[in-house]
Amino acid sequence: MAAGKGTRMNNPSMAKVMYEINGKPLVQHVVELAERIHSSKIIVIVGWQKESVIRHLGAEGKKVICVDQNPQLGTGHAVMQAEPILKGFSGDVLVLSGDVPRLLDHTLEGLLSHHHESDAVATVLTAELADPTGYGRIIRNESGEVLGIVEQKDATEDQKRIKEINSGIYVFQSEKLFGALKLIRPANAQKEYYLTDVFEQFWKWKLRVAATIAFDPSEIQGINTLEQLEEARAAMS
Q1: Closest listed residue to residue 97, CA positions, set 72, 120, 77, 75
Q2: Is residue 143's pLDDT more than 80?
């Protein structure tokens, strides 16, 4: 997903995913990660300042399919745009964020392995953060089963104190994913289609949802501000 405006970067003329680390835009780091784990098809959801993203990936010779999300109505809406490209596909769909450049191959490989071993319809990559502000929280029961994912803006005060967060990185069984996406509604404070709402459908259908915690939480931290960009540049230099 690479359609976001990146308001907090304070540069409306530039797509957030086009900020560079080590001479490569954020989105290129993510596309190359998808290539290294041998993804059969890579779909980039573009939107804000999309021309620069499409032009750059084309110039780099990346074999990707760019799909425009217009208007931009949330993460669930973004993934809906990929459905025509994946029509008839019955494998797994890995959802990555274009502003998360530090994710490592072995972390994704572990996520995929856990997904297959647990025979889950969907698997969430999570992390435990000292300061979880801004991230959706993972709601579990006493047995450790995932019961829900609550976005920061919709969380109660008790839920905001939860340290385990949703990274926004998932694996889904394709058919179940797009079936659930057809049923979600923008019934939240932002009037957006949250991708996380598909999990409610899975639970209604009594399907298994798994989660695995990233060993190093810094891998899943997105770039939302110039300060975070500088921190990532220092860590990846």
Answers
A1: 75
A2: no
**In degrees rounded to 5, what are phi and psi of residue 45?**
-85, 115
Which residue out of 8, 36, 161, 185 is catalytically annotated? 8
Q: Residue 2 carries which side chain, given as an amino acid letter?
A: A
Find the helix packing angle between 26-36 and 50-59, rounded to 10°: 50
CA 236 to CA 28: how far, in whole Å? 14
Distance between CA atoms of residues 178 and 86, nearest Å: 10
Which domains can be identified in the chain, with CATH numbers? 7-223 (3.90.550.10)
At 5-45, the pLDDT tens digits run 888 898 989 999 999 999 999 999 999 999 999 999 999 99
For tokens 């780099």, name the residue: 60
Taking Cα atoms as reference points, which of 124, 101, 111, 126 lies closest to residue 33?
Answer: 101
Please indicate whether residue 185 is annotated as part of the active site. no
Tell me if the pTM is above 0.70.
Answer: yes
